[in-house]
Every structure is written in C-alpha cells, then in structure tokens.
Write a structure and sequence with these properties.
Elements: H1 2-29, H2 39-48, E1 61-63, H3 79-89, H4 95-107, H5 114-140, H6 143-154, H7 157-163, H8 170-191, H9 200-216, H10 220-238, H11 241-261, H12 263-273, H13 288-298, H14 311-341, H15 343-368, H16 385-409, H17 415-443, H18 454-461, E2 469-475, H19 478-500, E3 509-515, H20 520-528, E4 537-543, E5 555-558, E6 562-573, E7 577-585
Helix pairs in contact: 1-5, 1-6, 2-19, 3-4, 5-6, 5-7, 5-8, 5-16, 6-16, 7-17, 8-9, 8-10, 8-15, 9-10, 9-11, 10-15, 14-15, 14-16, 15-16, 16-17, 18-19
C-alpha cells in the first residue's frame, strides 16, 4: 500500500508539472500575433533575417504594400556576417541573432504569419524556462518548491510578456537559470559535507553557460559578477583558510576563461557602450529607481489594466495590485524567514538572495553612477527574474507548510482554526489564479502594451481610408528608422484589415524615410522635389523625432503639384511628435 501511495504521489507530481508546462505553452502562444511589432522587434527582424539597414529603402517613397519585401529571409548569410552587421549597426552581442537566423531558416518560407514565426523562439525559450526553474528549486529546496517554481513562471504575466517579444530576453533568462542551477550544485559540493568536491564538469558547465549568456546580452555581465560575488561571500562566511585555496583556484581559473572569451568582442563592446542608441535612458531623479524597482517586482506576479485606461479603472486596478502585492509580499517575507531558519534550506536561500541583491546593486549602479536609469524599462529585470521567481515559489511553499504546522500544533477542532486551515489551503491557488488572470490581460493587449503604440499610431494616421496617404519619418539614426518601420507595419495591417472589409478605399498608401541630420528643413525640401503625384488630395503625416510642435511649419510642398496646410487639430506625441498636413492639388 505504501508503495502504491508513493507511486500515486510521484504520478500526480509529474502530472502537475505537465499541466503547468501546458498552461505555459497555451498562454504564450495565445494571440501571439495580436500585438504589432515595435521598434526593438523590428531590429530583431532585420538582423535575424540576415539583413542590415542597407536593405531598407531610405530617402525614397515606397508603398506600404511593398514593405513585406524588406522582411524576407536572405539565404546564405554566415554568423560572421551577422556579427559584422551587429557590430556596426547595433548595440548588442551577436549570438542571439545568429541563433535566430538559423531557427528562421528552418521555418522558411515564412509566409504571411512571419510575425508569429519571428516570436515563436522566444515562446519556446520561455516554456523551457518553466522546466529549468522547476529543476532549480527542486535541487535547491524540494520537489514541491520545484513544482511551485514551475507554476509561478508558467502564469507570470512578466514571463508571458517577454515570451511574446521577438527579443533576447527569454533566452538569457533560460541561460541565467541554468547558470544558477550550476551555482547551486557548486554551493552544495562545497558546503554540503565536510569533504569539498570540485566537479570539473559542473564548473565547466557554469563557465560555458556564463560565456554564452554574455554573448547573448551584455547585461549578463552583471549576472556573472553577481554570481562570483555570491560565491566569494559564501566562501568568506563558511570556509576555513586551508580549504579556501582549492575552491579559489578553481574559481580564478573559471573566471579567467570567461574574461579571455570576451577578448575577441571587447573592442566592439566598448564601441557599443558609447553609441547614441543608449541615450534614450534618462538620468535618475532622486529615488525613482527604487520605487520603479518595487513596481517592477509587483508586475512580475500581477498586472491589471492600468495603461491607456479611463482614470477610474486605472485607480481601481492600481489599488487592487498594491493590496495583492502587499498581502503576497508579507507571505513571501515570512516564508523566506522560515527558509533561513531551517538548516536544510538556509544555504540555497542565502545563495539566491545574495545573487538577487548583487544584481539589484548592479542595476542601481548603472542607474546612479553611469546616469542611465534602466529601471524605467521593466523588461530589463529579466536578469534576476529566475532567482526572484524561484525565491517567491520556495517562500510560498515554506509559508504554506509552516502555517499548517502551527495550526495543527494548536487546537485544530475549533471553528476558528478550521477556517484558518481552509483559507490556508486556498492561499496558493489564489496566487496562481491572480497571476493567470493577469496573463489574460497581457495576451489581450490590455497590459504590457508595446512601446510607442505602433498600432494606435497606425489607426490615427489611417483615419480617412478614402483619402490617399503618405507618412514620412524624419530620421536621425537607424533607431528612428526601426521605429518608422514599426509604424509602417502597423499601417500595413490597418490597410489590409480595411481592404478585407470590402469598403471602397484609396490604394495610395506610401511611406518614406528622409534624413533630418542637417535639419528638418531638408526633409521638407526632399518632399518638395518629389515627382508630380497623380492625385488631387493627400493626407501627409510627418514623424519628427527630437522635435517639438513649433518646429512644424504652417505650409509645405509635396512635389510641384501638391500644397499642404497644417491641421492643428491633428497633432500627437508618443515619445516623438507626429503631425498631419492636408494637401490639395495646385490649380
């Protein structure tokens, strides 16, 4: 009977893991193509398709219907060519883009659902993260904590949001969780018994994973430093002098391998750090990075509609999120205290806590010392999300178990204690259900909306489908070009959607990129020199990054045949301004 009972528990455990993996897959693939590609995803598409910015039609007018030609897979491109494109035109390491190029090559022809295919690798990396966090918590704490870790990641709105981004976030989260798995094993080998174990394959795995992580995303340098600092802190606290040498020698060798591996890319990395594309990050103001970090913690587990919503909905949603986060935070705090008291869980808890703390210190150092507040972008918290979610899961299991022990130690027959026990049984399902509902808001585009709102912009500029349309991006750099392409792709979706409705509309939908590096006047000059347009009227939209409303003149010319007047009622700003001009044919 005991054997059957153990078998049933074993079966239910893995059935639960399978269930959460299935939930993770469903949530991450749900409405995968609903949200439009935004600027960073466009950059991913360009380099992952084997192209660079020379593939984009600049300083000419083209139809949005021809835009699909830009986003086609270019065969025969090597990883070294992609790395060269990244080195000159981007601010990232090359490994993610090389991997994406290979994966998209297996999916070709990409067809009309190319956006889903572009995002699908991030989905599968996000699903694999669920499994990795399971093994991380199982090794560090227990099988129950492992299962809870898988559940937390599966229904985390933050994890679902990043899994639906065609960017290098879920892949480094996966490699970071793998490196933490190796770190926990190293910690166990050093401290679990009197005899120190140095397993070469574990240290080698940890070293190689960190190298791969850094070549996927530069922020993984912070991750590597945090792991080294965590090991040093644990060694300093736990080991006697004679035992330190063996471990320190191994650690020095591993760290040296990581540093040597960066030499081929070091000069490129230096150039990337000085590029203008990183200047969008603001200088931190007072305690902004601190409270923004707290907000980022909240939205890892719960997010309700607060973006672009009526004020009452925003206020109610915000208050509910704060109440839930306060209640959950208290439970997690109590759970971590219990984990730190127990001899079996103290060391892995300290390991994950120390790592998370050192990463947060690194983020604050970048914000305050280097003057680039990366806490304004919640997505950058991916670098400590695996340890954060692992700690939450372990703490909740610990709090749940410790509360039950206390209840059973008391008079369990009283109505009050029966009610407490019933409530305690519902505690974990409430947490997971709240996160699951949050994920539904994410996949419905009611939360974690795309920066610069490309689809909303497209709807604004395509408000008169019967009138010929031209949109112009006055770009300063290639980042502006990528932003303009996201608007053009959004416009293409709007045009297709309207055409499918069989309502008569204009078939004139053009886009153009004109360089404004010598001034916005050069853009208007290029417009005036266009060939005569065989149309009687035109809605002309001008996107002008870095400009203000007063920089738009009252009148401009589009070719010798069209004169355009500003429509002062049609001016918008979403980080950059865009303005409508109504053009009529000259008599």
């Amino acid at each position: 009977m005991m054997t059957n009972h153990k078998f049933n528990l074993h079966y239910l455990h893995y059935l639960g893991l399978t269930f959460f993996i299935a939930i993770a897959i469903i949530l991450r693939f749900c409405n995968l193509e609903l949200k439009p590609l935004w600027m960073d995803e466009v950059i991913t598409a360009i380099f992952s398709l084997g192209k660079n910015y020379s593939s984009i039609p600049l300083d000419i007018v083209f139809s949005v219907e021809s835009l699909r030609d830009v986003f086609t897979y270019q065969t025969g491109v090597s990883c070294s060519q992609i790395a060269q494109n990244i080195a000159t035109d981007s601010t990232h390491p090359p490994l993610f883009f090389c991997g994406m190029y290979g994966l998209l090559g297996w999916m070709k022809p990409l067809g009309d659902d190319w956006v889903s295919k572009l995002r699908s690798p991030s989905v599968w990396f996000g699903v694999t993260l669920v499994v990795t966090v399971y093994f991380l918590n199982r090794l560090a704490f227990s099988r129950k904590a492992g299962l809870m870790g898988a559940a937390i990641v599966a229904v985390s709105p933050f994890a679902v949001y990043l899994s639906q981004e065609a960017r290098h976030y879920t892949l480094p989260m996966l490699t970071i969780s793998l490196s933490l798995l190796a770190l926990i094993q190293i910690q166990r080998d050093i401290f679990a018994s009197q005899q120190i174990k140095i397993r070469i394959w574990v240290w080698l795995s940890w070293t190689m994973i960190n190298i791969i992580s850094i070549y996927i995303h530069y922020f993984c340098i912070i991750v590597f430093i945090a792991q080294v600092a965590t090991l040093v802190l644990l060694i300093w606290r736990k080991l006697k002098i004679l035992k330190i040498r063996k471990v320190l020698l191994t650690m020095i060798l591993s760290n040296s391998v990581v540093l040597i591996s960066l030499i081929p890319w070091f000069r490129v990395m230096q150039n990337h750090l000085n590029r203008s594309e990183t200047n969008w990050l603001p200088i931190p103001q007072h305690i902004e990075p601190l409270y923004q970090t707290l907000i980022n913690w909240i939205i890892m587990v719960v997010i309700l509609p607060v973006e672009k919503q009526p004020l009452p909905i925003t206020i109610i949603s915000g208050l509910l999120m704060l109440l839930f986060a306060g209640w959950l935070g208290w439970k997690v705090f109590r759970g971590i205290k219990f984990l730190l008291k127990e001899p079996q869980t103290r060391l892995p808890t300290l390991t994950l806590l120390s790592f998370t703390t050192f990463v947060l210190l690194g983020i604050l150092a970048i914000s305050y010392i280097f003057g680039k507040d990366i806490t304004v972008a919640p997505r950058y918290n991916f670098i400590y999300y695996p340890s954060f979610s692992a700690l939450i899961a372990a703490a909740l299991i610990s709090e749940n178990n410790s509360s039950r022990i206390i209840l059973f130690a008391e008079n369990s027959l009283t109505k009050q204690n029966i009610l407490k026990f019933s409530t305690q049984k519902l505690f974990l399902p409430i947490v997971l259900l709240t996160s699951f509902i949050s994920c539904l808001f994410v996949v419905s585009d009611l939360a974690f909306q795309k920066p610069y709102l490309p689809q909303q912009v497209a709807q604004n500029i395509y408000q008169q489908p019967t009138v010929p349309l031209m949109a112009v991006m006055a770009y300063r750099n290639y980042q502006d070009v990528a932003l303009g392409l996201s608007f053009a792709l959004g416009l293409e979706r709007e045009v297709k959607s309207f055409q499918n409705s069989n309502i008569p509309a204009s078939n004139y939908h053009n886009f153009a990129f004109f360089n404004q590096s010598v001034g916005l006047e050069s853009v208007f000059k290029n417009l005036s020199q266009l060939p005569n347009q065989n149309i009687s009227q035109l809605n002309l939209w001008i996107f002008a990054p870095g400009r203000i409303r007063n920089d738009y003149p009252q009148q401009i010319q589009v070719s010798p045949s069209l004169s355009c007047n500003i429509d002062t009622n049609q001016h918008y700003r979403i980080g950059i301004p865009y303005q409508l001009y109504r053009c009529q044919k000259n008599n």
